[in-house]
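Q: I have two molecules that I believe assemble together. Could you output structure tokens for the complex as a whole instead of separate predictions?
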Amino acid sequence: MTKRVDEPTGTTTVGHEWDGIEELDTPLPRWWLIIFVACIVFAAGYVVVYPAIPMRHAATAGVFGWSSRGDLAAEVTAERTRKASTLAAIAALPIEALPAQPQLLRTAIEGGRAAFKVHCVQCHGSGAAGSIGYPNLNDDDWLWGGDLTSIEYTLTHGIRNPDHDETRQSQMPPFADVLQAAEIDQLVAHVRNISGQGKPSGAGAALFETNCSACHGTAGKGGREFGAPNLTDGIWLYGGDKAAVRVSIAKAHAGVMPRWNSRLDPVTIRMLAAYVHSLGGGEAPPAPVVAVAPEGKADVGA
Amino acid sequence: MSALDLISPSSPLYQKRKGVFPKAVDGFYRRLKWAVMAITLTIYYVTPWLRWDRGAYAPDQAVLIDLAHRRFYMFSIEIWPQEFYYVAGLLVMAGIGLFLVTSAVGRAWCGYACPQTVWTDLFVHVERAIDGDRNAQIRLAKAPWTFEKTVKRLNKWSIWLLIALLTGGAWVFYFADAPTLARDLVSMQAPFVAYATIGVLTTTTFLLGGFMREQVCIYMCPWPRIQTAMLDEKSLIVTYKDWRGEPRSAGLKKAQAMEADYPVETFGIAKARIGDCIDCNQCVAVCPTGIDIREGPQIGCITCALCIDACDKVMTQIGRPRGLIDYATLDDAVIEKAGGTARPVWRTLLRPRTLIYFTIWAGIGAAMLFSLGQRDRLDISVAADRNPRHVQLSDGSIRNSFTVKLRNMETRPRSVDLVVSGLPEAVVWSEVGSRETAGPRLRVPLAPDATTQLRLFVAAPATGEEHVEFRIVAQPTDGAPGSREARPARDDVVFERPEREDDE
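A: Yes, here they are, computed for all two components at once.
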């Protein structure tokens, strides 16, 4: 541990030696020192003005009163303000009038797309293609109507919500209590036949006329006032093979969709309706006579 | 200094800049540099103000790099982002052009046209106007900070700063409508990025042109290294003809006296062979990078040829032929040293290497011009929506949906018919239509100079292959049949059907 002056450089050594290798006691570069001291000064100021020192419940607030949560709140408020006029315009318009305003419609569809990803994908899937028991919203088969007004109504009031009077309401009885197993098999054969599968069944047709046509129609085309599915097309909410159809007839299904007026504001629901309508199966507004259908349905449910 | 000296701790790695005070000079090359400076500065400052009528739907600035809208306008040419390879082609041409120029006339780019050279030259002239010529400048640099020196320095720096500000200010006009931006800049309403860009370019111009100067060429710029590698023995470079100049004599009179004293071999003393160089040092005094060309070719020489002007003037004064320092090739040097006559300049310029470079350069240029003339101004790209891949419709048919982007690159509204080909019985409609209005073709209006995006629904019978390759064609509804504008755009996509399930 002897300090000495290194001759070629004129610098003092630190005094350590490892196998003849010594370390020179070179001072820190000036620029480095300046930056180092500047950082300390900066840190002192930072601690005073920004949240810095952890206390028992929260960090010190800092004299600027800044917080990341406050930043977020400000950004959210700014974003709300930015969107407010557009959303107000969408809210002010009856939904049937939306297609006449392409700019607003596009905004509504995009807003609906975002809301769909949060509230709807859990059941209907991220592509809105649904699954067994959850309708595919891309197709042109609608249980309760596929025009903008009907979709908005369904979204607002939901389907089979026990706590709500205006909800879409219907209930298919479980036919296992009414019919013999063999009769159900005949019905299955008939239902599959009218949708283009399997052979005709005379007995099944008769049973259908007696038990099913009240809601599904004589031809099995369904009825939107009851949300009764069209049995003649290729789209099956609960499956179209024999076993699935048998279960549907014997036990009956009654799918429930929450009413969204208790969770979402009317503009979001309107934008969701526009989005769902835009997926490819959306229908044109019905003729004026049919336009009162929502109220009609509500009466049925009541 | 050897490499060992460089790494020795006793010699610092940093060398302080030696002041360069270039002396004023006049001559052919100086005038050539004036002309090049006038042309390049004019191009730089005036270009953004040129107007070019493109109709109502596109800007009327002749040269505009519209980053916000992703368009590049250059007179009658408009380039979209996906056509950026044209800009890449221009860069390739610029590169090969530099090869061509370097192999023919050495570092002519460095000496005449490089912005660093042009702006430094401009700054040097300002300096000379305020501080006086070389000797006055040296005196002033050594002088203490008197009132007069302070005033001169402040004057010089202010003018430099003004030039730098105008330089940075002109740059931003290439990226926005120049008259509008000029108004906004003055009224402090221009975007922050414009002020920031001007600030950065003002600072760099001020520092690079005023203080760093030749150090940029020697230490910062990669081009001298690359150009040095591109030079060969047939490239024209600024050459001190040492076989003619050496041995030097200090002053004309001494030279003449020596020749007079020893006209023939006398007492074993050789007949005086006195070179033409009288060591007047004018070539060093005028050099903007502060080198001595008589030491041979070196990285610091930007071949500005001012030493040629200076030396020619001296040679004329002392009655010797001009061209002691001159543009010459290394081959010429060997020939002349042996007493021969150098090859004519045109043979130096026209040789296989330069001709091959020129052919490649011109070929790329011609190919780009041809392709610019032939390119389509309508483009379609179709992406299949994958979630869900296909949808079963109630009539039994299968629907696929596609995101279609139609690029109308003409500055006028157009419309196209989207037609499906290769998919039997297919019908199409879009978000704004419906299955009821679907047909074999769909008319789509296209906004001018813009991309139109739509969701296209295609329905086809369920019977058929699981994957069918088909084509979506955008057929313009305007333009004479067979003309370029009537040429359809197309994209190939796949129609997906559900996997076959056998009936029970």
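A: One point stands out. Residues 85 and 91 of chain B are 9 Å apart (CA to CA).
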